[in-house]
Amino acid sequence: MNNAPIIAEQLARHFGDVKAVDGINLTVNQGEIFGFLGPNGAGKSTAVRMLTTLLRPTSGTARVAGYDVVKQADEVRRNIGVALQDAAIDPLMTGYELLELQAVLYGIAATKMKQRANELLERVGLTAAADRRVATYSGGMRRRLDLALSLIHQPAVLFLDEPTTGLDPMSRLTLWEEVRRLNREGTTVMLTTQYLEEADQLADRIAIIDHGKIVREGKPSELKRSVGDPTLLINVSREHSDAARSVLARFGDMRPTAEGTLGVGLRGGAERVAEVVRALDEAKLVVEHLELNQPSLDDVFAEATGYRLEGADNAPQAG
Amino acid sequence: MRRKPADTVRQFVALSRRSTLAIFRQPALVGPSLIFPLFFAALGSSSFSRAISLPGFPKVDSYLQFTLAGTVTQGVLFGSVTGAAALATDIEEGFFDRLLAAPTSRTSILFGRLAGSSLFGALQALIFLLALLPFGVTVQAGLLGYVSIVVAGFITAFAVGALMSVVALKTGSAEAVQGTFPVLFILLFLSSAFFPRETMSGAYRHIADFNPISYMVEGQRSLSIDGVSLVAITQTLVIPAGIAVLTTMLALRQLSVRLAAR
Question: If you measure CA to CA, which chain B residue comes closest to A78?
Answer without folding.
Answer: B103
